[in-house]
Write a structure and sequence with these properties.
It contains eight helices and no strands. The chain is mainly α. It is globular and about 55 Å long.
């Protein structure tokens, strides 16, 4: 992987973490002030990151006809994020498995539509399924802010996002010579994948700590 791609991955990881932190702080200020903005700043930040990932992921994997995968990842991720934004405690993540399940069904349906003679069907299916995990799990970054009303530590999201970004940079630095070359958007998707997917991990970790 050339230096341009390494810089792209590093920049994407830092910018994504900054976007999550900024969204969390704006949402927390809105929740504290009762301004009506609520979780929307965080939801907007997560939705933007999902859009970048959904575009770059199938191109990173060099999947034929990448646009149908992009739309599936985008719709499933946005659906889960919107549901987490509108659903309050005790179960702000209750719709995420449904969005993931519908996305899985849509992936297999799209491969059937492509026909038996389509190229790289297995790679397309596996790549789309992994992408769905990242985009739907990202909704956890929004849902975890619901715990603010239970007295959860306000720093959980900034610390979690920063930790994931640093871990991503460390892993990418170690594996830099083994990573495949890709476009800038594909490299950005590579950096975004762990940050998006860790949203649900942060959510359930915080939930366990509050019990």
């Amino acid at each position: 992987m050339g230096p341009v791609r390494s810089k792209t991955i590093a920049a994407a990881a830092v910018i994504a973490a900054a976007a999550v932190i900024a969204g969390a702080l704006a949402a927390r200020d809105g929740l504290d002030a009762g301004s009506g903005m609520g979780l929307y700043p965080m939801a907007a930040a997560v939705a933007a990151l999902i859009a970048v990932f959904a575009y770059g992921w199938p191109r990173l994997l060099k999947i034929p006809d990448p646009w149908h995968i992009t739309w599936l990842l985008l719709l499933a991720g946005w659906g889960a994020t919107l549901a987490a934004t509108l659903s309050a405690l005790p179960s702000p993540m209750q719709w995420m498995p449904i969005c993931l399940g519908l996305g899985v069904v849509a992936v297999f349906a799209s491969q059937l539509v492509r026909g038996t003679g389509a190229t790289r069907r297995l790679e397309s299916t596996l790549g789309a399924l992994l992408g769905l995990l990242a985009t739907t799990f990202a909704s956890g970054w929004v849902a975890v802010l619901n715990f603010a009303q239970l007295g959860a530590n306000a720093l959980v999201v900034p610390i979690g996002a920063a930790a994931v970004a640093l871990a991503t940079l460390a892993v990418m630095a170690i594996l830099s010579k083994r990573l495949p070359g890709s476009t800038r958007m594909g490299s950005a998707a590579m950096a975004l994948a762990p940050l998006l997917a860790s949203g649900t991990l942060v959510y359930f970790t915080q939930r366990l700590l509050l019990q």
